[in-house]
Amino acid sequence: MPESTSPLLAIEGLGKIFTAGQQSIHAVQDVSLDIHRGEIVGIVGESGSGKTTFGRCVLRLTEPSQGRIEFDGVNLTHLEGAPMRNMRRRMQMIFQDPYASLNPRMTVERIIAEPLDIHQIGTVAERRARVGALLREVDLPLDSGSRYPHEFSGGQRQRIGIARALAVKPDLIVADEPVSALDVSIQAQVVNLLKDLQQRYHLTMLFISHDLNVVNFLCDRVLVMYLGRVMESGPARLISNRPAHPYTQALLSANPHLGSIKRQRITLSGDLPSPANPPSGCVFRTRCPYAQSRCAEEIPQLRQVAGENKQQVACHFFEQL
Ligand code: SF4
């Protein structure tokens, strides 16, 4: 994993509260994360875990309610106007739904060139040449530029979305469930393309997914979220081979071919509780087979796993499990 002295992205205590009438929903609570250049960090959790809100807050597509976001040494938290637009150019997003995220009335060339137009990068001829190069990068036919999104398959549309994100040569890409809307047979191709591009351009990426299988394949480090909170974080090899949190173990139990788990299988029962009314103490306790009375009373803080200074777990009892 690449290491440099200061992270490209440093997030401290990030939180997001949505209000609906009298109700406050804590979608993300107190998430801290550093990402170094060239690193891929995965955010994994079920639908409703807060991972997408977290990704949007990082780019300030959704305004965070709490915390600090620093990008390449600049505090983004309250940045506005031209300085923020300039930063936005350096941070791009790949969206989950390749059907909804591409304007059906625009040709593929216009879609891919749009970020270049917005940020006024290059001449018309240079933008056209850049689009041609990007089509090659993502393995799309060169005549794709004059066609429209509906003429392409789901996997091809996501390649268009990837080309659009790469157009301005960003420093950071946030990929929000980029393969979950695709057929399983196509998912591996797109994941492999992302891995190839990451290695070729030393991209830095925040990869959001509900699939720990994909995350462990692609990412250097993983953050496991549940009801807006971080349950566990650490290098992907540790998370897949020695998960310490019961929730991570449950996610891996759902993919038994992964890792070398010698623990009891944990099956997740029931649904995610409502974020509007989360359980007291440990938010995972209503689905945790190891829950004890302390779990209802006290929120577990992230603690380091002994001997693994990069693995952290939020569970009162993980040493005994
Ligand atoms: Fe389970 Fe308690 Fe640990 Fe939460 S703190 S994961 S409820 S054992």
Summary of the model, kept short:
The chain has 321 residues and is of the alpha/beta class.
List keywords for this structure.
single chain; 321 residues; alpha/beta; Rossmann fold; 2 domains; 4-stranded antiparallel sheet; 10 helices; 23% strand; globular; binds iron/sulfur cluster
Can you characterise this structure?
- This protein is of the alpha/beta class and 321 residues long.
- It folds into 2 domains: 9-90 and 170-320, P-loop containing nucleotide triphosphate hydrolases (Rossmann fold, 3-Layer(aba) Sandwich); 101-168, no CATH class.
- Helices cover 31% and strands 23% of the residues.
- It has 10 helices and 12 strands.
- The strands form 2 sheets. The chain has an 8-stranded mixed beta sheet, sandwiched between helices.
- The radius of gyration is 20 Å and the shape is globular.
- The protein starts with 8 loop residues before the first strand and ends in an 8-residue tail after the last strand.
- The structure holds iron/sulfur cluster.
- The site of iron/sulfur cluster has 12 residues, from loops.
Count the strands?
Answer: 12
Give the spatial strand order of the biggest sheet. 6-7-8-3-9-10-12-11
Name the CATH architecture of the largest domain.
3-Layer(aba) Sandwich
The total of helices stands at 10
Low-confidence stretches: none
Ligands (ions, cofactors included): iron/sulfur cluster
Measured by DSSP, the beta-strand proportion falls in 15-25%
